[in-house]
Amino acid sequence: MSTELKDTTLPPPKRKPGGKETVPHVAAVNAAAASFASLIAKLDYLSPADLEKVRLAYRFADEAHLGQLRNSGEPYITHPIAVASQCAEWKLDAQALMAALLHDALEDCGVTKSELIDKFGSQVADLVDGLTKLDKLQFNTREENQAESFRKMLLAMARDVRVILIKLADRSHNMRTLSDAPREKWGRISSETLEIYAPIAYRLGLNQTYRELQDLAFRHLFPWRYSILSKAVAKARGRRRDLIQKVQKEVELAFTTSVMTVGIAGREKSLYSVYRKMDDKHLSFAQITDIYGFRVLVANLSDCYTALGTLHQLYKPVPGKFKDHIALPKPNGYQSLHTTLVGPSGVNVEFQIRTEAMHVVAESGVAAHWLYKANEPNSPTTDRLGAKWLQSLLDIQDETRDAAEFWDHVKVDLFPDAVYVFTPKSRIMALPRGATVVDFAYAIHSNIGDRAMAARINGEQVPLRTELKNGDVVEVVTAPVSTPNPAWLSFVRTGRARSKIRHHLKTMAQTESESLGEKLLMQALRAEGIEKIPPEEGHYRVVWDKLLRFTGNRYRSELLIDIGLGKRIASIVGRRLVKLLTEQGEKPDALLLSRERFASSEATLGQDAVTIDGSENASVSFASCCRPVPGDGILGYLGRGEGLVVHADSCPTGLKLKSKDSERFIHVEWSDEPVRAFETGIMVTVINGKGVLARVASALASAEVDITHLDMGDESAQEATDLRFLIAVRDRAHLDTALRQLRRTPSVLRAERRSPAH
């Protein structure tokens, strides 16, 4: 508490944001000041300038939390100080310590991020903001299958590793003081700690924090089991004290004889580890033989293996109980030799052998990056240790000193290409990095993907091609009439989305082609005097079997699809079908035959002409050589496997095809009410000058025309330049309106529709 506030008369106790009571007690002021003094004592590795920054952050946090109490009755400021003290144990930098002191200010005290930026800089504000966002994430521990995804998402959301380290320090202090919280909160917080935060500590190599979080969670989750087991371990410790002392003396003598300088310390298995081993392997406490062991610290790497030989000469090793984690480090960077030996009285004793540097990494993991920078900033050991940890964890070549870059490398290894997002119901979805809203929709269900129309991320409307970021809450809006767009294939990242889109487009193309093929075969039959396509059942079954053998198709639907795609000519199939029906005794209708032939001779379209309205997808395409629009005369060409291609009736390419392959041309006509706009080409010749392109685009916009493509050519600018546009218009009249609008525009010399020759 800052001195100028010590004598202030405080108001009566009241609630502040966050539910912390105020305290009008001078003793609380003194307690907070004393705890901050203990923090300062740990910060001897900071420069005077950095130390002053930490003091300023403390004063700010002290005033922000003025009068707030924790559940224990202590001033609330003692919690941020305790979190900062843990960060100081890891030798984190001044920015991290400042963020630790301020980490509850945004959430509980009405302080804004911009205020933090003004006072402490953007990096500290970003750290505090990152911690606040993590605090807002609520995890339902009953959904245990999501625990791993949640852990990964927490790691992925933190842009800076220091955010996670401060968060772990925060959780550690909250667990140490959990006994002061209401009993009904113990289960939820302890489960969350076991499932989420302890594994994160392990993954980052913070073994000391990992063990502490496990034991504290075990103590509050199963108080009775914890009490019984702790008493049993204490009793066993007393019984085995003489044995442990004897082993230690014999080991020290063996190393003294071999002239090796080592440090030997006893190691006791954590209570939670004992409990899990008993539970997983169905053992009684008496059957657990490795509760106590020894840690041997040596000078260098080669001494590790020399010490192993010395121990194996002293006691016999237990077969199958040797592990070399130096040659093969654990994924979190842990390195040690583990061996279990048969000690005096036949009791198994485990030994861990490692160097001092390995011990620091084993206990502090990722925090060793800062620990060694702080202790020996210019020592080659600093870079060597940092590189060793990074290479074992990340398999990268160069050690980095920048915290943000360092964390980027860590994240790449922990989850190489993953992004974690929420559904509106808080289900966590893991997707590849770069995945879009469409990938998310198909990951939920193929029907959601197929019907996706729009999307919202964190409540804001976004395009379907938007890439997802960690922590996004994604909501997909669907519509029954919506269908997959072929353009989606250009930006989706997941194989599932790609295959589902292709499958749907293929199915849709086949359905449309079958419908078109049925209509074309109907036209061909009517031209031969048969009213409709015969059914497959009854005595017509023989007719269809013979027809399918003739065409080489297996099914009726397959034949119709082939006709719709232009692989089979409807008139040839129709004549063959009529011949087979005649053999069955069915005669063509003379009246229908004469009517169809009369309509054909008059060069009018038959009543069953294929109608084009723009809703067709894969089965109908519009020739790029002439780009017809409603109002143009059109021809329909059944390309081989291409479906129906629509040409303008004046198109040279279309007329040339018709002269060579007339049987592949069918009657087509425009619908009275097309459902979309159609692309066509125009050429606008303009006088070069400033703002000319803007005026042309404005003229097209005022005519309600969409520009889909613009080509200005490669030649250098002349006095007059041709601009080639692709525009989307409703019909021929709409196109004429747009051209008139362009011709009235200043600087436009000529505007006309592009002919196929252009």
Protein described:
The chain has 758 residues and is α+β, with helices and mostly antiparallel strands. The chain has 29 helices and 22 strands. A five-stranded mixed sheet has the order 3-4-7-6-5. α8 packs across α10 and α13 (241-257) crosses α15 (301-314). It starts with 14 loop residues before the first strand and ends in a 5-residue tail after the last strand.
Helix content: 40-55%
Instruction: Give the domain tally.
Output: 5
The spatial strand order of the largest sheet comes to 3-4-7-6-5
Relative strand content: 15-25%
**Global outline:** elongated
CATH topology description of the largest domain: Hypothetical protein af1432
Mean pLDDT: 76
Instruction: Please compute the radius of gyration using only Cα atoms.
Output: 39 Å
- The number of distinct helices, counting runs of at least 4 residues, comes to 29
User: Which class of the largest domain in CATH terms?
Assistant: Mainly Alpha
CATH superfamily of the largest domain: Hypothetical protein af1432
Q: What distance lies between the first and last C-alpha atoms, to the nearest angstrom?
A: 82 Å
Low-confidence stretches: 1-26, 141-145, 377-403, 411-416, 600-607
CATH architecture of the largest domain: Orthogonal Bundle
Q: How many β-strands, per DSSP?
A: 22
> In terms of structural class, how would the helical and strand content be classed?
alpha+beta
Largest sheet: 5 strands, mixed
